[in-house]
Amino acid sequence: MGRSMLDLWVGIFVVAGMAALVILAFKVGNMSSMGSSETYEISANFDNIGGLKPRAPIKSAGVVVGRVTSIEFNNERFTAKVKMAVEKNFKFPKDTTASILTSGLLGEQYIGLEGGGDDQMLKAGDSIRLTQSAVVLEKLISQFLFDKAAEGGDAKKK
Amino acid sequence: MPHRTLPSIRRIGANAIDVVLRLGFAARFIGLTLAHSGTSFARPRLIIRELYYTGVLSLIIILVSGLFVGMVLGLQGYQTLTTYGSESALGVLVALSLVRELGPVVSALLFASRAGSAMTAEIGLMKATEQLSAMEMMAVDPIARVVAPRFWAGVISMPLLAAMFSAMGIFGGYVIGVVLIGVDEGSFWSQMQGAVDVREDIVNGVIKSFVFGVAVTWIALFEGYDAPPTAEGVSGATTRTVVTSSLAILGLDFILTSFMFRGM
């Protein structure tokens, strides 16, 4: 095999390998959607985060606007402190509500932001006051059973 | 009956010493290889030649097996996911298992048996036919001329091959899942993109395949260089290359995985 053929094949090989890496990064990974765009960090305290995990998406009106960066336990208030990075070009008013929602019945959990009417915007390091915890299935069922039992008791009295 | 047990105990001791000696030589060998790498980078033509023999000639086996592994993942994943009614997560399953595990591991196993064994046989035969000694006679360091270019060729081509394996596998999963079975194409790709993180998953996979590349080429070159200069010696060394590097890949994979993906 000649020298130039060898070079050609090795060149093709290296280019194909690089192309495979680029395909993996852009088509398979989320490089294009959440790349190096600048973000600012805000936090929120939740009574219960359910199954929320770091890197979970933050959506507003269904559009991904950021990601959860870290989840810590706040030992003073016995709540979960969730830090999130929101993209710089999205601004939210101070009285934004953050709630933990689930996509689909068994899907992943994400944080939904719902803007309020305040004319002041959240800045980096701010904390969201209005939060709504994740729905815990056990609590929901026990409350339902409790209500049913109470109803049954009322019916007997009458 | 001390006359019967004594030799076997003696053999255990001799084997243990042999293992330690070989480990020491292997460590010295990789040190020498790295020290002589400068000269082989000064002559990139040598590395390009070896890239052809290790990388380009492994392409077919890597691409074809990647495609089939991906297609099997598509079929099996669909079977399992459809019992939970979440077949739209098929893309996530195929992509994550390929990028994190199967891509680096299976391509490294194939690389060890395709390219690693060839390296060992080549260098072992060079030694058996005294080509290496002849080089030394001509004041050419065989480590700089023969070993270092092969080492770097293996280290460079392994991550590229693993990336191609994963990409091909995801394409295979796409063909089976979306084209043949009819999983929704939009959710196949969008759920995949939502779940696969570039730094967490893809970069870690590349790191894995890089480590496997170092391990496989190191073992292959060392076994070849250390082979007894006989026909039997070379064949034994070739077998040992495949066995040792396969075990090393799986063991290293466990260690790397436990560091990279715990918790999450």
Q: What are the defining features of this structure?
A:
heterodimer; A: 158 residues; alpha/beta; 2 domains; eight-stranded mixed sheet; 2 helices; 30% helix; B: 264 residues; mainly alpha
Walkthrough of the structure:
- The complex is a heterodimer of chains A (158) and B (264).
- Chain A has 158 residues and is an alpha/beta fold.
- Chain A has two domains: 1-32; 39-142, no CATH class.
- Chain A has helices at residues 3-28, 137-157; strands spanning 39-46, 57-60, 63-74, 79-87, 97-102, 109-114, 127-128, 130-132.
- Chain A is elongated and about 95 Å long.
- The model of chain A has no long low-confidence stretch (mean pLDDT 84).
- In chain B, helix 9 (198-226) packs antiparallel against helix 10 (231-260).
- The model of chain B has no long low-confidence stretch (mean pLDDT 90).
- The chains are: A alpha/beta (158), B mainly alpha (264).
- The A-B interface holds A 1, 6-7, 9-10, 12-14, 16-18, 20-21, 23-25, 27-31, 33, 53-55, 57, 106, 108 and B 48-49, 51-52, 55-56, 59, 84, 86, 95, 99, 157, 159-161, 163-164, 166-168, 170, 189, 192-194, 196-198, 200-202, 206, 264.
Kindly name the structural category of chain A: alpha/beta
**Given the C-alpha coordinates, what overall shape of chain B results?**
elongated
The pair of chains with the biggest contact is: A-B, 28 and 33 residues
Low-confidence stretches of chain A: none
Q: Helicity of chain B, in percent?
A: over 70%
Proportion of β residues of chain A?
A: 25-35%
Number of structurally distinct domains of chain A: 2
User: Which band does the percent of strand residues of chain B land in?
Assistant: under 5%
Beta-strand segment tally of chain B? 0
The count of DSSP E runs of length 2 or more, i.e. the number of strands of chain A, is 8
The string of secondary-structure elements of chain B, in order, is HHHHHHHHHH
- Cα distance spanning the termini of chain A: 98 Å
List the total number of helices of chain B: 10
Largest sheet of chain B: none
C-alpha Rg of chain A (nearest Å): 24 Å
Number of helices of chain A: 2
Structural class of chain B: mainly alpha
